[in-house]
Amino acid sequence: APAGAAGMAAGDKRQQRSERIRASPAGELKLQALKLWEDLRRGDIAADDRRAKMEQMMGLIRGRIKEITFKHDMSRVIQTCVKLGTDAQRSEIGSELRGAYVDLARSTYGKHIVMALLKYSNACRGDVVRAFHGQVRGTLRHREASAVLEECYAVYANSAQRWQLASELYGAELAVFKTDAAHNIDDVLAAAPQKRDAVVAGLLASLAPLLQKGTVQHSLVHRALADYLRLAPPEARQKMIEQMRELCVEVLHTRDGAHAAQLCIAYGTAKDRKAIAKSLRPYVQRVAREEHGHAVLVSLLDCMDDTVYAGKTLLAELAGSVAELAGDQHGRRVLLYVLAGRHPQYVGSDALRIMQATDEARSVTSKKDAATRHRELTAHVAPALMRWVADTAPTSVFLPLPSQTVAEALVRCPPGADKQLAWDALLALVARPIGDDVHDGDKHVLLSPIASRVLSACIRSEYSTPSSPDAALPPLPADNPAFGSDVLRVLAEDDDGLLLQAACAGAFPVRALLESPVTGTRTRELLRPQAKQIAAALAAKPQRPRALPQIVELLA
Questions:
Q1: How high is the mean pLDDT of the chain?
Q2: Dist CA 122 CA 135 (whole Å)
């Protein structure tokens, strides 16, 4: 009886809901559309049946789409039609909604229809973007509509369309008199430099209310912030930085937002940088792994004079997750910057461009010698890096991304017991028998293209500093381990002829030993008696000689 009563109660509720819908405007149409929709959205419906039901649905709602689309249940019906319909049907829906896109975007339910048209209808995207012309500033302050505008700008608009939307934040003149000739504010100012003051004033008028409310999460705002910080006079820029320093953590997830944060760091005072570092501290590990956010951390480390504070707030957090960062596409760049400075192979070109463009400002706002800064920063992370190398050398040295950090850490970290342990872990891999690796090649540290690069870099560092475009890097530690001499000792002491096997396999570290003024003479003494055997090995493997041709030449 209770189950039957519950079934009757549920049936009564469905009946009451149907009656409410029937009593509303276009109620009969809504009931029919909802019934069709239940069939249309099923995953197991045949393609032909779906096409037939879509035609039936379009026949039902044609001419009345705008009338019914703002309600919750009907919004889902129209979304399904956009998703499952043909291009012609999507265009028909779009044409009926033309002129109502902004109103739909401001609706809790209607905004999803605009999102669906952006995603599924190429023909409607231009109309949706144009619908926001003249509405950008107000839309950014609207909770629902701002999400649609962000989708338009960040995902679907092309360069010209993005500027058409963004230009409304740069002052009344640019908002009204749009042109296809310009794609950014630099194009505008190149043609009319006298407009700079008006543009700066327009940007401030647009940004001030957004900053007061903390509404800075959108890409459009990030672009305007970055341009304002570039173009504003020093006093106005400093006022903006003081407003922004607590908000940098909220904008650095986009390219323009990261640029804005980098400019705040470069032009800001020591107090501003400390405030930015403090705001980043709870999120520093996540930020370090972000595509754009990691560049903000690099800029902060590049500018902060108080390396003790940087060590406590930023590097202490990073040191706790060295393994994750070293293997991450973006996180490794932060560690590698600390070790190797502004090396273009490690620091992204976009971040490097901003840092170089603000060097003049940094020379005024940051007083510490760059080499001293790098030495002090490296000292903060060195113990954690060395422990990581010692613990993970058998795996990390063979992986493309972590191996970069292994090489730079061994060469550049200050010496100590931890560094010797790390280097001994790598030497233990060198001492392993090569075995079948002579033939199939990449499992031994001497033969792996990745691991052998680490060994070769260490060997070369015994007699020369690795080349780097960053002249501010400090010299290598004078009491580094004798990398090349240690490798040669391990190879020479092996009773199974490990040095000869490595030479016959064309190992790049053997070539590095021969080229080194420290180990070259001794290596030649050991290998010259077997020069004919090494030359025969070259003749036997023309397909994959590795460094064999150079080894044979150096022994001649």
A1: 89
A2: 22
* Cα end-to-end distance, the chain, whole Å: 101
Token pair, residue 298, equals 């690099």
Q: Name the percent of the chain lying above pLDDT 90.
A: 64
Residue 440: predicted pLDDT: 47
The rounded distance, in Å, linking the Cα atoms of 86 and 82 is 8
Amino acid at 427: L
**How would you class 416 by CB atoms within 10 Å of its CB: exposed for 0-12, middle for 13-18, buried for 19 or more?**
middle
Quick: pLDDT tens for 488-541: 999 999 878 899 999 988 889 999 999 999 999 999 999 999 999 989 988 887
3-state secondary structure of 225: helix
Tokens (6 digits) for 390: 């010692």
CA distance 266 to 177: 34
Location of structure tokens 């197991």 = 44
58 within 8 A of 85, measured Cβ to Cβ = yes
Three-state SS at 553: helix
Amino acid at 390: A
Task: State the angle between helix axes of 520-527 and 483-493 in degrees (0 to 180), rounded to the nearest 10.
Answer: 20
Q: Please give the Cα distance from 16 to 23 (Å, whole number).
A: 11
136 vs 203: CA distance, rounded Å: 13
- Return the structure tokens found at 190: 């190149």
Alpha carbon 251 to chain centroid distance?
13
* Rounded CA separation 455/460 (Å): 9
Kindly list the distances between the CA atom of residue 548 and the CA atoms of 291, 442, 525, 536, 555, in Å, as whole numbers in the listed order.
40, 15, 17, 10, 11
Asked if residues 342 and 470 have their Cβ atoms less than 8 Å apart, the reply is yes
Sorting pLDDT into bands at 50, 70 and 90, what band is 3? low
Asked if 130 and 156 touch (Cβ cutoff 8 Å), the reply is no
Q: What are phi and psi of 44, to 5 degrees?
A: -100, 10
Query: CA 448 to CA 445: how far, in whole Å?
Result: 6
Find the angle CA(383)-CA(385)-CA(391) to the nearest 5 degrees: 100
Sign of the alpha-carbon dihedral angle for 49, 51, 56, 60: positive
Q: Give me the pLDDT at residue 10, please.
A: 59
- Band (pLDDT 50/70/90 cuts) for residue 12 is low
Q: Tell me the DSSP string of 334-363.
A: HHHHHHH-S-TTTS-HHHHHHHHHTHHHHH
* Residue 142 main-chain phi, psi, to 5 deg: -100, 130
> Could you give the 3-state DSSP secondary structure of residue 289?
coil
